[in-house]
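Explain the record.
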Amino acid sequence: MKNNRFIFLLIKLGLLVGIMLYFVPGDAQIRFPVPTQQSIKDFENSKTYIVKEDKLISDFNLVLEDVVQKHWHATDAEIISATEFKNMRTDESASFVYMNQVYFKKDKTLTVYEYLFLSMGDKSGDIDDMPDLCAVPLAVKGTKQEEFVYKIGLILEFMQEHVRVCKKHPELDEKDVVDFYSSREINLNDKKLWLLQNEVEADFRNHSEMASIYSYDFQFVDKENIKTAIDQGRDDILILHLIKAGKNRYCFKLIVTAGKAGLYYYDYHRTKKRKPSLLLKKDIKKFLR
């Protein structure tokens, strides 16, 4: 995209058409797009079209109507097909939420990730020219959608929160927005961290072991508990959004409130034998800062 925020190139890996994102080695994060103030105004005046996947069987499509009704508040919204999206994205007054596949320019493994994008339309009709307001990783391509669709409502909440943050803080750019999120104060005495046991480093899946490194309130729960907390808007609950990846690939970790999706931790690591694709001890220590 413009200003090196997101660099879009159409590529072919077999039958894959995807988006290449800029990755800066040595950074402790992948950057979120930061919309211009004009794009934010355009978004606020737009109608948002939520795009279904062009698939006969899609867990994402099955949950879409429910999550949009419960979790999209910023603009009027309508669910459309992938075909309609192709025809409508020339409308510069419209905004769109859609899934697309991403790999990172400096990642030699060319791991492909599923992302959810929030973008404005562009007269060219090309996705690479559409102004991005937010983009959130969902999973590595090929992951069963049941592993992330229960959190789609939370992703929608975060997209709207990200636009609000960028509007309130016009001084932010793509280089410092994640640092801004990570440095925000949070009173952990008022929060409970809910985790899936299989997303935590193996040595800390026992309650007492986890308590030895995390002294605040926490609980191991299941996906249904997390979905319920999201639907209830529980800002007293913190949850982990983990994007697992194979060996020598990038694993993403976000900790957000289950209600308005306030982001308080965002990091990644390259997976190795001693650094599995999980929330690690060092993540907990860094989160506690």
In short: The radius of gyration is 18 Å. The chain has eight helices and eleven strands. Residues 1-18, 22-29 have pLDDT under 50 and may be disordered.
